[in-house]
Design brief:
alpha/beta; 11 helices; nine-stranded mixed β-sheet; 11 strands
């Protein structure tokens, strides 16, 4: 028995080393193609509509910070600078070794649909710390007319902190789960998306533990399928995470989609999810709600499941 346990431990260690190497290799490449919106195949009208850019021109604001993640990067609708209205928020948790500067097309796309999108250069986001600090920073921006002396703060009173969502991929998918369950501002979030979150066993081995039974906001789980399965979270492992979540949940696996591609390939549905949950878009809701919800019958996906995912 001791020999069996020893062999099992060695195999687990080898698996961890292989995955870390693969993650580091992936981290050395651009994380999302600049033309993914044009090249990604869609399987439904709603998916296609929200994969396209929204109607807002987008601007970018950066602020350096004395944290390991170096700076906050905020994509926002350019009209915010002269508008009096408030805008909902999407917080981003990065994958392993993948700062937001490696996939700017993704937050820019979200912002084109009317969101303030904030991320960092964090490379180890499993605990949700960067997301927590991003929320605190947004609160500071929303509450102060000036951040720098003599310089007006364009975000003052324009951030809708009652409509905050969060999304992350891979290690960032774990960061999402911890941000909404374990961080001090967990109750700030209204909706979440976890893309290919590291499976529970591997996360535990890497000391990235999370408890999906504590999730209490509507959440969308998407991973890859086909071509050897998603090597960070297999279909059965994603179903296990889904089963842990008490309610307000949807899961799906995108066919013929590698792990790293899950960051951007399901973007049409990620955007639609936040449009529904944070902006009350009833056309976007048709992708997820009702007997004929588009995601649940989309031929590009498999293993679709849904339970009480209505916007709150």
């Amino acid at each position: 028995m001791k020999n069996v346990l020893k062999i099992a431990g060695i195999l687990l260690l080898i698996g961890i080393v292989v995955i870390i190497v693969l993650l580091k290799y992936a981290a050395g490449r651009p994380a999302a193609p600049t033309d993914y919106q044009r090249k990604v195949e869609t399987g439904g009208e709603i998916e296609a509509a929200y994969l396209a850019s929204g109607s807002f021109e987008v601007s970018v604001y950066e602020e350096p910070v004395l944290q390991v993640f170096k700076k906050y990067v905020i994509y926002y609708p350019a009209e915010l600078e002269t508008s009096e209205k408030q805008y909902p928020v999407i917080v981003i948790c990065n994958g392993s070794g993948t700062p937001i500067s490696k996939y700017p097309t993704v937050p820019k796309h979200y912002a084109s649909w009317g969101f303030i999108v904030i991320g960092t250069e964090e490379e180890h986001a499993w605990n949700g710390f960067g997301a927590e600090m991003s929320v605190r920073h947004l609160q500071r921006l929303n509450d102060n007319e000036q951040i720098e002396e003599g310089k007006a703060n364009i975000f003052y009173q324009k951030i809708d902190l009652s409509n905050v969502g969060i999304v992350g991929h891979s290690q960032g998918g774990v960061g999402v789960l911890n941000a909404i369950t374990a961080q001090p501002h967990k109750d700030t979030y209204k909706a979440a998306v976890s893309l290919s979150p590291t499976n529970k066993e591997l996360a535990h081995a890497l000391e990235w533990d999370y408890d999906a039974t504590l999730v209490n906001v509507p959440i969308l789980l998407i991973s890859g399928a086909g071509g050897g399965d998603d090597w960070v979270v297999t279909g059965e492992q994603l179903k296990s995470i889904y089963s842990d979540i008490p309610a307000h949940k949807i899961m799906a696996r995108r066919n013929n989609t590698a792990h790293n591609e899950v960051l951007y390939a399901p973007d049409g549905y990620v955007t639609a999810w936040f449009m529904w949950q944070l902006q009350g878009d009833q056309n976007a809701a048709k992708a997820f709600a009702g007997d004929k919800a588009e995601l649940l019958v989309n031929p590009l996906y498999q293993d679709q499941r849904a339970e009480s995912a209505a916007a709150r």
